[in-house]
Design the sequence.
């Protein structure tokens, strides 16, 4: 997010979109969840700096207007805003025949925080623990590779052992980590990371120190299927997908109890090290 100095406060702007997940929605003719994804990708990027989302605008570019598609997208956007406790204050829908093929959905989110409460990662020190929060699935990153594997090796209607189809798994909306703001009020947090495209490599943005993941969260079934069907190695998977960890806190060990009281499904997955880089069970992720 970009920060705007407003005296004792800062304003922040984040912008992001749904990407090629929209093509999965088109294939399934189900556009409800992508609105939640659009909001989630923006607000989660604000939460990592302890910024409170307050307002959102969406932008839709399409080659033709479909009332049904627009209604479903709108419902999803509203649900995402409800989960993030903020307002959608406007938006734009542009029909761009000849320039756009299909539909692209993006949004911009405004956040606010007292300047001295912004968390940048500068406080991270070796010995801090890494607390992982589970993702709801693939979220909104790595869909180009995931779609390729599904379309070449199976179909969106292919069932998984959990009873869901591959298409349903890929359309599961991105988790919105709204409880983050309660955590930062209740304990010391040195840094936070939204695990998006690039997987564990996102952690490198936070600090010059290293991040050692020794006990990763269990990846959901969809990732195991993608790895097997697409012959994707472990390192490649963890630098492409979130692999079941959608968000991470970096904090002193004394903060773990507070974090787990707000996010009961979270747990310690590793620690910060003097040696730079990101490692998964001792193997460096590059």
Sequence:
């Amino acid at each position: 997010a970009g920060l705007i100095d407003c005296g004792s406060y800062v304003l922040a702007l984040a912008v992001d979109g749904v990407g090629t997940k929209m093509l999965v929605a088109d294939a399934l003719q189900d556009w409800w969840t992508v609105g939640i994804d659009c909001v989630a990708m923006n607000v989660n990027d604000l939460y990592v700096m302890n910024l409170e989302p307050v307002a959102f605008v969406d932008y839709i570019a399409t080659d033709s207007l479909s009332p049904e598609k627009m209604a479903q997208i709108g419902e999803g956007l509203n649900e995402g805003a409800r989960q993030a406790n903020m307002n959608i204050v406007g938006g734009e829908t542009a029909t761009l025949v000849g320039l756009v093929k299909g539909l692209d959905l993006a949004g911009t989110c405004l956040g606010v925080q007292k300047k001295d409460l912004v968390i940048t990662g500068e406080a991270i020190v070796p010995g801090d623990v890494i607390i992982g929060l589970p993702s709801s699935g693939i979220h909104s990153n790595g869909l180009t590779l995931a779609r390729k594997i599904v379309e070449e090796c199976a179909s969106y209607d292919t069932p998984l052992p959990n009873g869901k189809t591959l298409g349903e798994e890929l359309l599961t909306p991105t988790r919105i980590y709204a409880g983050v703001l309660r955590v930062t009020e209740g304990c010391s947090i040195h840094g936070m990371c939204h695990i998006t495209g690039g997987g564990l490599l996102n952690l490198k943005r936070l600090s010059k120190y290293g991040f050692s993941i020794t006990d990763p969260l269990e990846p959901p079934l969809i990732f195991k299927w993608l790895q097997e069907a697409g012959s994707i190695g472990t390192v490649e998977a963890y630098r492409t997908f979130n692999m079941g960890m959608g968000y991470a806190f970096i904090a002193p060990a004394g903060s773990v109890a507070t974090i787990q009281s707000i996010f009961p499904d979270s747990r310690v997955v590793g620690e910060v090290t003097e040696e730079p880089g990101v490692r998964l069970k001792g193997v460096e992720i590059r």
Q: What stands out?
A: The chain is about 30% helix and 30% strand. The longest helix spans residues 67-84.
